[in-house]
Amino acid sequence: MYEPIAWFFKPYDHTITDNVLENEVGALNIDNNLVNGERPSNILDFWFDKGEKEYHEAQKPVSLLKFLINLTTRENQVVLDPFMGSGSTCVAAKLTNRKYIGMELDEKYFDIAKMRVEGSNLTYEQKEKRATQLAIFEKR
Ligand SMILES: C[S@@+](CC[C@H](N)C(=O)[O-])C[C@H]1O[C@@H](n2cnc3c(N)ncnc32)[C@H](O)[C@@H]1O
Question: What is the mean pLDDT of residues 19-24?
């Protein structure tokens, strides 16, 4: 499966260097985000980690989002996902020491996102147990 990724940022003042110095956005941190020791190409190949549970039909792998967040932001900056679905972006932001804001229209996915973010430091086995508990709770 393939999906395009577009990268936009603003403001953009003068040069990229000026922009990074003044606004702390607008540059790719390539040196710290090599793929198999190489500079990343414009084709990224990521898939779900073993045991990563899928909750949403359009869910993205947390590993991909961690890579993109590390590539385009610095620690403690704010990552906004206005269409967060199952919350993968917020999970990735938390795991990469960024602040995060997520918005989701569907209450079911909002609850799943909240559960995933709160449990993002747990092992996959612990997450699986929490998800099962949530599913039982929802049925009642
Ligand atoms: C493509 S999915 C996001 C999937 C997410 N990246 C993940 O990994 O789970 C888009 C989400 O946006 C939500 N959505 C659509 N319109 C919205 C709106 N106006 N405000 C907030 N969320 C919205 C949908 O309910 C859907 O869950």
Answer: 87
